[in-house]
Amino acid sequence: MLRPSDYDPKELRALTGAAAPTHADEEADRWTEPGDFLGRADARVRAAQVEDAFLLQAAAGGAGRPYLPELPDSVVGTQLVLDWLRYLVGVGGRERAREALALYRDVEWLTESTEEALAAYLEAFDGVEGDRLDFGHHRTSLLFVARLAALR
Hints:
The chain is built from six helices and no strands. The chain is an all-alpha fold. The chain has one domain (8-151).
């Protein structure tokens, strides 16, 4: 049985008649460890999330603060709110999600009334306390805020 893992990638390219490796091919071969690939993939995902947040905010009429003065009054908006809170509770638990909402009010992503409405939704969620929310979790929350703002 032929196992490609037994061969050098350059050898396999030559056997298939593929073109000689370019600098990009050599760059791809450097990802020998999963962490190398995952680190670069994570950076690309983060960049795409930030870009999405700005595009969504622009679609909602600009990036004035607070970003989300009120929750959208629609089925889609309610589902998005529940998805966001499910995400926060899943990562950090209900109490840390509540703390995150207070932080988002403090940095003017939300108004006080929006925070209160979101906190009322939180009562429906059960969850054990999880890890502390980090920058990546807050960045994902900003994307949810931008999507909700675009629905208003």
